[in-house]
Design goal:
Elements (H helix, E strand, L loop, with lengths): L1 H31 L4 H16 L1 E9 L5 E9 L2 H4 L3 E3 L3 H9 L13 H11 L2 E7 L4 E10 L7 H41 L4 H26 L9 H18 L3 E8 L2 H8 L1 H17 L6 E6 L2 E7 L3 H15 L3 E3 L2 E3 L3 E8 L6 H18 L3 E3 L15
Parallel strand pairs: 11-12
Antiparallel strand pairs: 1-2, 1-5, 2-3, 4-5, 6-8, 6-11, 7-8, 9-10
Helix pairs in contact: 1-2, 1-6, 2-6, 6-7, 9-10
Length: 397
Amino acid sequence: MKKESQIFLLESQLRDREFEIAMLKETANAVSGELDLEKVFQLVAEHARKLILAETVLIPVLNENQSHYTYRAGCGKNSDEIVGQSLPLEVGICGWVSRHKRPWWHGVLAELDEGERNQWEKEAGSVVLVPLIGKRQFLGGIAGINKIGAKDFSQRDLDLLTLFAHQVSHAIENAQLFEQLIKSKEQAEEYQRELQALNAELERRVAQRTSALADAVKELEHLALHDMLTDLPNRSLVEDRLQQGIHIAKREKKVLSFIVIDINQFRDVNDQHGHDVGDSLLKQIAMRLRRILRQSDTAGRLGGDEFAFVLPSTDAAGAGKVAEKLIKVMEPPYKLGDKSISCVCSIGISVYPQHGEDVGTLNKNAEIAMYSAKRGGRGYAVYYPRDAKIPKPTGKR
């Protein structure tokens, strides 16, 4: 009976782990394509609360001059009373996390001197706060307050929330860039109105400023619509190109193919070699994908270890040839410093209009085909309706 109990416990832990990983991926997909900053913050708060079972989750975000932080979003008990409040950075746990650039939870108490321990001990078990750190700067944090069931937050809660924060930090930073883009466009329009009232000399000076601003807007637009790691089009731009391709194919009565590419066992690379090596591998994969692009094609990164191709005027047979080229170009091992890593991918194909006439349906059916290829140990698969009845694998691929 003891062995059976151990097996039951391990199976239960495995199911919990698969559920947590599936939730992390669902959240990453939800926020990666969202450019409305307030929606991003609210999504992060709601998913974080489910992840660590907190009574309340708040998102403190630093202001531009890094002197104060404001609670930009939250959910759960009493969150409505707190969201919108601003506090000096030196006040509270958020200030502590900002200064130390590391998470806060009750395990930190053992590392503090007696004076600090007495100061923080009352809040130690009831609060966990992990930093949000982007590629450019410290952004803020995710705070969980009071574990449901009157328990303390555990090391597992801390690890899950830290991984979650790492996944969503880039999406938050991307949304902030998009917000800056909107502001820059509004400024550009204001400058245009000023031009009409200025004399010739002033017009010349404003024209110079407008030119510089246009360059900045162009750069911000590129950052907002391209993946910051690989510089490939991000999910938003890929779906926009797919939508445009559907309109053209419909008007000209042509076909179009959509390809989804998943890197098998990519998580093992991160686990064994670290996220820096994983990021370097994704960059090299992106470089290889570019080699087989036609001028009319679009290759992009959907997020995590998923990439996509939009192939105008290409039927299933043509997409299959592209898939074979993709498999071949990704076969040679990747040199990452003193390491040599081999990758295998699974590819799914959907075709307009046979497998769908809108972005969502083509995307979903390409994913279904990709899972079919993964299950069958094949390099690629074209969508077949019966595959849709087979449940997707859960957890990180």
